[in-house]
Predict the 3D structure of the following.
Amino acid sequence: MLKAVSYQGEHKMKVILLQGGARKKGNTAKVLNWVEEELKSNGHEVETIYLHSKDLKGCIGCKKCKEIPDAVGCVQKDDILEILEKMIGAEAVVFSSPLYFWGINAQLKAVIDRTYSLYTNANLPGHKSLVEGQRQALLLTGAGPWDNNAEGAFTAFGRMQKYHKAVNAGELFIGGCTTPSEMDPSVRAKAIEFAHKLIK
């Protein structure tokens, strides 16, 4: 079970934010930045990882990782190995992305696919996960509405958490996005609320 970092006797958490948006000042980045600011203002240890600057290879389905149950046993040598190790050391992780074709984008998907190496014996009595008990949340931004557009990505995210043996700590979709400067002021309030749900 993951343990919280303690700051002056208070329950503080180590949080990883996976920034999947390609634009460092885009819609996803802006909302995630509000989340980061709120977490840091409450004393939590936060690291944002900008995925587009990383070498990310997709899962090749070789299952070699299942031969090493207590470690990240992926045979591919890229930046995802370090990301997975940081995830294992965190108590909470936010997965964020713009919505592309009714789902998350390729960069975040590569990371999620490679989390296959974090658990063994799925759906069996010996099911183990290196991130068991971790609080995980999904943040998506998109130009369109929720209906017939975003819900599938959140359904898939919830199913992933079953295999991670993780806790669903929040879901936020910001639709109707154009440019960050045109974002409604209420979005910041939603981002702050999302941050508080994450570390509850």
Observations:
- Residues 5-198 form a domain with the Rossmann fold fold (CATH 3.40.50.360).
- The longest helix spans residues 27-41.
